[in-house]
Amino acid sequence: MNAQDLLSNLETILVFIIAFGLLMFVHETGHYLASKVFGIQVEEFGFGFPPRLIKLFQFKETEFTLNWLPFGAFVRPKGENDPGVPGGLGAANAWVRLLVFFAGPFVNLVVGMILFVFIIAHFGVMDSARVPVEDVAVGSPAQLAGLQKGDRITLINGQPVGGSAGLQKTVAANLDKPIQLTLLRGGQTVLVELTPRSKPPAGQGAMGVVMGTDFVPVASSRWLPEAYNRVYDQINQTISLPGKLLRKEVSPEQGRFVGPVGIYSIFQNTLKADLELLAAGSPLGGINTSSLIAILSVALGITNLLPIPALDGGRILLILPELILRRRIPAKYENIIHLVGFALVILLSIYITTQDILNPIIPH
């Protein structure tokens, strides 16, 4: 690796840390603001994770600190896990605690939607009427059928293609069966027939094509509904993923969890693709990275709402019996549950990170 490549990698790492850190910052800002609204003191707002590097400043009772581990942020409300501390979070009523824990993920979902609004306003929405072919694998069914880079698939078996998702769904339902594709090529309509493979080589899909996306502008009245649909689809995909894995509708590789190393790998390739688009003068330069950040913001909100002890969703789950039965789970048991949950989350994070290193994400 030469000095220029090293500098480029360091710049990418810095941009990634800033982008990911900002998403964590807005998440913790949600917790901070909700705590302040309900009169709960926040003792510390940390950028990064301990050990502490330096105290930046103090605003009222809150110390704002910079910590050594660069990924993430945290807030430390007064009496978070101790209901015996007067005026602390642990002593607040159930609804207040629930809203404070919910505020962080909620802000991430809102930020994701706002980012999608700006993306749609600037770039438009995906054109579901056609799917561009960005590359064709050598020796694949697509190449043997005559597909070429730059073709646009408009129909599959005589039916509208329905965007890349619709194309993938129809192809998956016709593995090892001949299908007919209608293509646009240089203003002309071309018909081809191929048979998608049920067992393609590693790194290739059933047809052996890399699908792209065309974008079309939409009226400003559609920006917010389209952004909402993006967020809703992502939430739905996350919730339905375990069922799809069990039904083998999604492969374990496609449904794998990724940690910071895996996310960085995706971010690096996404940023590289955008830089190439910008260098080529494409109007789509920047769309991949901005979309990824919006997706990560939504994913961060959804993940933190999962009913896992130590996460916001796990804390909310333990508050629900108090709302329904009017009886609170004893603090000592709740703290043990979160401690065990936190340990399991750390172990899972180590496993995921190990997989990201040993089995890195490979862009297709």
Mind sketching the topology for me?
Elements: H1 3-37, E1 42-59, E2 62-77, H2 94-123, E3 125-126, E4 131-136, H3 141-145, E5 152-156, E6 159-160, H4 163-172, E7 179-185, E8 188-194, E9 209-211, E10 215-216, H5 223-246, H6 260-279, H7 287-304, H8 312-325, H9 331-358
Q: How would you sum up the global shape?
A: elongated
Instruction: Please give the radius of gyration in angstroms.
Output: 24 Å
Tell me the series of helices and strands, N- to C-terminal: HEEHEEHEEHEEEEHHHHH
Mean pLDDT: 89
The percentage of residues in β strands lies in 15-25%
* Helical fraction: 40-55%
Q: Structural class, please?
A: alpha+beta
Number of helical segments with 4 or more residues: 9
Largest sheet: 6 strands, antiparallel
**Poorly predicted ranges (pLDDT <50, ≥5 residues)?**
none
Compute the separation of the termini in Å: 24 Å
Q: Work out the number of β strands.
A: 10
Describe the 3D structure.
Helix content is 51%, strand content 19%. By secondary structure, it is of the alpha+beta class. Strand 1 and strand 2 (62-77) form a beta hairpin. Helix 1 crosses helix 2, helix 2 packs across helix 8 and helix 5 (223-246) packs across helix 7 (287-304). The protein is elongated, with a radius of gyration of 24 Å. The two termini are 24 Å apart. The relative contact order is 0.11.
